[in-house]
Amino acid sequence: MNLYTLLQQREANDNPVRVGVIGCGKFASMYLAQALRTPGMHVVAIADLNPDNARENLARIEWPAEQYAARDFDDARRTGGTWITDDVSALFASTTIEVVIDATGDPPAGVRHALMACEAGKSIIMVNVEADVLAGPLLAKKARESGIVYSLAYGDQPALICDLVDWARAAGFDVVAAGRGHKWKPEFRYYTPDNVWDGYGLSPEQAALGGMNPKMFTSFLDGTKPAIESTAVANVTGLTPAPHGLNFPPGRIDQIPNLCRPMAEGGVLDHKGQVEVISSLDETGELIDYNIRYGVFVAFEAANDYVARCFREYGLATDDSGRYAVMYKRWHLIGLELGISVASVGIRREPTGSATGWRADAVATAKRDLAVGDMLDGEGGYTVSAKLMPAAASLADGALPIGLASNVKVIRPVAKDQTVTWADVQVDNTDTAVRVRKEMEETFGGAFAQAAE
């Protein structure tokens, strides 16, 4: 609760948290819109493959032009301005920048940036949850060994879920389930960029006016984003997936305690301590009122009758027995809240979520029959979506992570709805992201074999 005070102290001492941002898209733009209003924080440089696009976005969020007119790092530090560059390596080479934000959304690039952060001794905040899901447990381990902080991004749902889980456990509650909301029907998993706007009730013209990226919105609709984000949460918190992945049970917020209890007690959970996603659509496809589509939740259990009575006395939403309850945040503000991570990492050296083990995976699953010679087009594309799996099952099946399912050729037929495996595609084993992912599998996979003995 003291981050604002600590930021004010950094401002008063003329020692702001000095930040570098990689990628100036929607998430970064939302953060940058707030950064100028936050004491004790200085965005020294922004690296983007298209600097002109970065400048256009800064103008769109109403940054004054003189704020991003710095000529280099020295000029930015002297004037308090921001340097725009296309040279990512310059951010890591800088002696000025303390914290780097990866907001690229590109899994292989995110892996490379995390490794560069370790080498440069700079803490890194991974807006790029896709990279975290690809190799986060290993990247977090390497970061700790390098003496830097590796963190998920506050404002994005995974970090907010982890925050709620931490709150519940620090207050002495046993967490039964945690997760997020989502607009979901089973047939959504087959949507592609060609028909995605049908799923949102929009025309292509309306989507174009809003600047909406069809591939990005396909990844939301087809279940890929929920699988990715649930994987990140599991690897941070120790919660685990059901063997079959996500259930997507529909329900109101006040129905979550009934849903998020074990099946033996009338709920949908395979086990206590599970990651789950609640659908905002009922079985007929109608929108449920008082839903948690844009929010996050944690379901927890009363240890005894006294605590259950306290739940009732203070008006918590509980299940029929009164023993399971829910706490939630109904909305999230993505990049507008990212400054919480920057302050936590830059001042306290505390991550807002960092993988502690490999427990879950988001794996490529065929949207249609895939033939030899087909090229996979990754998250939000035409060929695959992501499915949540326990990490041990993913390793045993040789499943291909969704983060590596882009621009790779199919070399064995894969039937619709089947998991795509390493053996089904042709990958470049010299690629850094591929090597790091396989290193992670080797590093953490031994624990699965020991557990099975």
What does it look like?
The protein is an alpha/beta fold and about 450 residues long. The chain folds into three domains: about 5-155 and about 335-350, 3-Layer(aba) Sandwich (Rossmann fold); about 160-185 and about 225-330, no CATH class; about 360-450, Type Iii Antifreeze Protein Isoform Hplc 12 (Alpha-Beta Complex). Helices cover about 40% and strands about 15% of the residues. The chain has 17 helices and 15 strands. The chain has helices at about 5-10, 25-35, 50-60, 75-80, 90-95, 105-120, 130-145, 155-170, 195-200, 205-210, 215-220, 225-235, 255-260, 305-315, 340-350, 390-395, 430-450; strands spanning about 15-20, 40-45, 85, 100, 125, 150, 175-180, 275-280, 295-300, 325-330, 360-365, 375, 385-390, 405-410, 425. The chain has a six-stranded parallel sheet with strand order 3-2-1-4-5-6, sandwiched between helices. α6 (about 105-120) links the parallel β4 (about 100) and β5 (about 125). α6 (about 105-120) packs parallel to α7 (about 130-145) and α8 packs parallel to α12. The longest helix is centred in the C-terminal third of the chain and has 21 residues, at about 430-450. The mean pLDDT is about 95.
